[in-house]
Design goal:
This protein is α/β, with parallel strands linked by helices and 510 residues long. It folds into two domains: 261 residues, Aldehyde Dehydrogenase, Chain A, domain 1; 200 residues, Aldehyde Dehydrogenase, Chain A, domain 2. The strands form five sheets. It has a seven-stranded mixed sheet, with helices on both faces. The chain has a five-stranded parallel sheet with strand order 9-8-7-10-11, sandwiched between helices. Strands 5-6-19 form a three-stranded antiparallel sheet, with no helix packed on it. Strand 5 and strand 6 form a beta hairpin. The longest helix has 22 residues. The N and C termini lie far apart (59 Å). The structure holds nicotinamide-adenine-dinucleotide. Nicotinamide-adenine-dinucleotide binds next to helix 9 and helix 10.
Length: 510
C-alpha cells in the first residue's frame, strides 16, 4: 500500500475500528528488550508497568533493563560498529535500507499508531496526521543526506594534499522523552544511523511500547544485527548507565533541563563523550498591536499551547500581548479557546485532546494552576480536571491573563495545557520580557512592520523564531535551543553532521 492510501484509510477509521485495533494490539505489545538483533528479557528479570493514562489500565509488564543490559547492548553496538557491516556499507546500500525502513513504518502505521495513543494518550488523529508522517519523513531525509554530506580537499601549498574526511562517531546512546515517543526517537536514531553509527536507544519509561518494534523493523529492512538496540528501563538506572558508559561516543538526549545537566556531568565523569541536548522551554509569542490578523494570531496561540495537551517543548506558553490589543486578544482567546480543545477518549478520531502522560503529570499541572491562582493571575476557563473523565490523567485547557513574568506559571515549564497572557507596552518591553527566562527554545513574533520583525528576530534569545506563524517548518529547519533549552539541533543537515567527526589527512608529496 502506498503512503497516501495507507494514511487515507487510517484517517477514515471510526472509534469502533480503533477500539478493535487496540484490543488486538494490547496482548501483542513487545515487552522485551532488543539487543544484537534479537528480543531478550532484562538480565535482572525486573519489570515495570506500562499504564494507559486515559484509563489507568495496565497495558503490559515491560522488561526493566538495568546497567547489565546497557553493557550488553553497548557491547553489541560496538561489535557491530567495528565490523563495518553498517558503518562501511556503500552509501547507496545504506540509503536503500533506510528507505525500506521508512516504507515498513508506513506499512505498520496502524499498530504503531494505536500503541502510541495507548502509551501516552496522544489523540489517534494526531498520530496518524502528524507523528507517523513526520517519522517517515525524518528517516527519508536523513537517508538522502548520506551521499550529500561531503568532506573537503583544502587549499594547501603545492607539495601537499589535505583531505578532511567525515566519519561516524561509533556507538551513539539516545535517551528520549515520552511526548512524541516515536518522533523523538527518529530525530536521533535516523541521523545517527544514516551517518554510519550504531545506536542504543533508552526510551522514556512512560512510553516504552513501540521502541523495540522500531528496532525490529530496521532489522527487517536489512539493517545488520546489533546496529539498532533498545533497552527500556528507568532513567536514573538504565539511562544513567548509558550516559556513563565508556564505549559510548555520544549521548543524544531530549528531555528536561534538569536531567540534561546530569547528562553533561555523566559525560565528564566518564569518557568525555559528546553530548547533544534538547531540553525544556517557556516560549514566548510576542503579539504586537499592529499584528496583521487577530483571528489568525489567536488561533495559532490556541494551537501553540493546547495541541498535544501542551506537552510540547516549544509550546507557546507565554503570550505577550501589547496593550492596545490586549483586551481584544483575551476576549477572542476566551471565545475561541474555551471550546477549541476538548478532553476525550484519545482513540476517538474526533478527539483533539487526550490525557496527560500520567497521574504525576496531572497533579503537577494542577498544582501549577493552583500557584497561578494564588499569585493573582486571572483564570478565564479550565483550571481543573474534567469530572466525566475521572479514570484518566486529564486536565481541562486553561487560560490565565494578567500574568506577570515573575509568577511561577510564567517561569516554570508547566508541560500541560495552560496558557498565560502577559501585557506589555512597546517592542522593547516585549523583547525584555521574552528574553527574561532561563530557556530559549522557540518564539513567535506577530507584526506587520518589517522593522519590528527584524529587530525582534535579531534580539530574541531563541533557536527557532516564527513570524506571523507558529510551529511551522520542515526538515530543513534546525530545531533546537539557546540557553538552558539545550544546544543540539535536530532535523536539518547539521543534525546529520553532529553524528560525524572530521579527520584531517595531510599528505606530503614527493
Ligand atoms: P525527563 O528529563 O524526565 O526524561 C527524559 C528521558 O531521560 C527519559 O528517557 C528518562 O528515563 C531519562 N532520564 C531521567 N533521569 C535520567 C538520568 N538520571 N540519567 C539518564 N537518563 C535519565 O523528561 P520527560 O519528562 O520525559 O520529557 C519532558 C521534557 O522533555 C520537557 O522538559 C520537554 O520540554 C523536553 N523536550 C524537549 C524537546 C526539544 O526538542 N527541546 C522535545 C521534546 C521534549
Amino acid at each position: 500500500m502506498n503512503e497516501t492510501t495507507q494514511t487515507a484509510s487510517l484517517e477514515n477509521y471510526t472509534l469502533a475500528q480503533w477500539r478493535e485495533v487496540a484490543e488486538r494490539a494490547k496482548p501483542r505489545i513487545e515487552t522485551r528488550l532488543f539487543i544484537d538483533g534479537a528480543y531478550c528479557d532484562a538480565a535482572g528479570g525486573g519489570r515495570f508497568q506500562n499504564i494507559n493514562p486515559a484509563t489507568g489500565e495496565v497495558l503490559a509488564e515491560m522488561a526493566r533493563g538495568t546497567e547489565a543490559d546497557i553493557d550488553r547492548a553497548v557491547a553489541a553496538a560496538l561489535k557491530a560498529y567495528r565490523s563495518g557491516a553498517w558503518s562501511r556499507m556503500a552509501p547507496r546500500d545504506r540509503m536503500e535500507v533506510l528507505y525500506r525502513y521508512a516504507d515498513l513504518i508506513e506499512a505498520n502505521a496502524e499498530s504503531l499508531a494505536v500503541l502510541e495513543t495507548l502509551d501516552m494518550g496522544k489523540p489517534i488523529a494526531d498520530v496518524i496526521a502528524e507523528d507517523i508522517p513526520a517519522v517517515v519523513t525524518t528517516i527519508r531525509f536523513m537517508a538522502e543526506c548520506i551521499d550529500k554530506v561531503e568532506g573537503a580537499v583544502t587549499n594547501t601549498d603545492a607539495g601537499s594534499v589535505h583531505m578532511v574526511l567525515r566519519e561516524p562517531l561509533g556507538v551513539v546512546g539516545a535517551i528520549t522523552p515520552w511526548n512524541y515517543p516515536m518522533l523523538m526517537a527518529a530525530w536521533k536514531v535516523a541521523p545517527a544511523l544514516a551517518a554510519g553509527n550504531t545506536v542504543v536507544l533508552k526510551p522514556a519509561e512512560q512510553s516504552p511500547s513501540n521502541a523495540a518494534r522500531l528496532a525490529e523493523l530496521f532489522l527487517e529492512a536489512g539493517g545488520p544485527p546489533g546496529v539498532f538496540n533498545v533497552v527500556n528501563g528507568m532513567g536514573e538506572d538504565a539511562g544513567r548507565a548509558l550516559a556513563l558508559h565508556n564505549d559510548v561516543a555520544k549521548i543524544s538526549f531530549t528531555g528536561s533541563t534538569e536531567v540534561g545537566k546530569l547528562i553533561m556531568q555523566y559525560a565528564g565523569q566518564s569518557n568525555m563523550k559528546r553530548v547533544g541536548l534538547e531540553c525544556g522551554g517557556k516560549s514566548p509569542q510576542i503579539m504586537m498591536g499592529d499584528l496583521p490578523d487577530l483571528d489568525a494570531a489567536v488561533e495559532a496561540a490556541i494551537d501553540g499551547i493546547f495541541a498535544n495537551m501542551g506537552e510540547v517543548c516549544s509550546a507557546g506558553s507565554r503570550l505577550l500581548v501589547e496593550r492596545p490589543i490586549y483586551d481584544a486578544f483575551v476576549e477572542r482567546f476566551v471565545a475561541e479557546g474555551s471550546n477549541a480543545y476538548r478532553p476525550g477518549d484519545p482513540l476517538d478520531p474526533a478527539t483533539n485532546m487526550g490525557p496527560l502522560v500520567d497521574r504525576g503529570a496531572q497533579q503537577r499541572v494542577l498544582s501549577m494552576i493552583e500557584a497561578g491562582r494564588n499569585e493573582g493571575a486571572r483564570l478565564h476557563f479550565g483550571g481543573d480536571a474534567p469530572e466525566s473523565l475521572a479514570d484518566g490523567a486529564f486536565v481541562n485547557p486553561t487560560l490565565f491573563s494578567d500574568v506577570r513574568n515573575d509568577m511561577s506559571i510564567a517561569r516554570q515549564e508547566i508541560f500541560g495545557p495552560v496558557a498565560s497572557v502577559i501585557p506589555f507596552e512597546g517592542a522593547d518591553e516585549g523583547l525584555a520580557i521574552a528574553n527574561d527566562t532561563m530557556y530559549g527554545l522557540a518564539a513567535g513574533i506577530w507584526t506587520r512592520d518589517i522593522n519590528t520583525a527584524f529587530k525582534l528576530i535579531k534580539n530574541i534569545e531563541a533557536g527557532v523564531v516564527w513570524v506571523n506563524a507558529y510551529e511551522d517548518g520542515d526538515m530543513t529547519q534546525p530545531f533546537g535551543g539557546y540557553k538552558q533549552s539545550g544546544h543540539a539541533r535536530d532535523k536539518c543537515m547539521d543534525s546529520f553532521k553532529s553524528y560525524t567527526q572530521t579527520k584531517s589527512a595531510w599528505i606530503r608529496l614527493e
